[in-house]
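Worked example 2:
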Amino acid sequence: MNSATVLPKRTLGKTGIDVSCLGLGTVKFGRNEGVKYPQDFALPDDRSVQSILQQCAERGMNLIDTAPAYGSSEKRLGQLLENRQQWIICSKVGEEFDKGESHFDFSAQHTRRSIERSLKRLRTDYLDIVLVHSDGSDEAIIHHSDCLETLQRAREDGLIRAYGMSTKTVAGGLLTVVHADIVMVTLNPGATDDRVVIEAAHKHGKGVLIKKALNSGHVVAAQTRAAQQTQDSVQESLDFIFANAGVGAVIIGSITPQHLQHNIDCAIRAASQD
């Protein structure tokens, strides 16, 4: 494959895990209620999901982000994902979505049970990355629950390769850098508070994953409404993100081949300029 058409890979901190600089978010594979996207959407059928996964593989993408809170996402990936060894699977613990509402449980018992359930759903004997799906109380989770300690034991038992937290506060992000392998933070041109977390992670050799790079799809929606603008908002956002040293990968969801192709092309250009 031509290197100009394939996503470059980066190592997540000191984990030894090499990921494509763009990863596939899979909320839309399993859940279309209680989400914050600008437009309603139907869940893609199995053939469409398989086509998206094949397109990802052909362009060098190896990182997939899922979670128990993403409805049927884990189960569908377990049924449709081929060649497990070529994929880096990131799932989560802490949040459950049931009957239109999210519920959170960061106890040791629930954390371990959630990991074991994800393994069964994804039809694998290990998860590459597991992140705590924070409810916003990042500091309390770290200081007053057994969640991270339970993830550490799961790593020692060989069930997971690395762990961290998808944070919602700067303070929580900085604590995650101290206590875990990987931190997932929000970064886009309109949300820059977590840049200090990225800097700290880079300094201490911790992995960084980026969420909400396109503001949950609102960047693309705004560009569609203003079709006359010449600046590519996706490219602008990814250029901004990859200009920050220490960013390992950006997670963006897509259920259309056109959007996926555009996201990949933009990520390749942005990552080559950092």
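The first strand starts at residue 9 and ends at 11. The CA atoms of residues 73 and 175 lie 29 Å apart.
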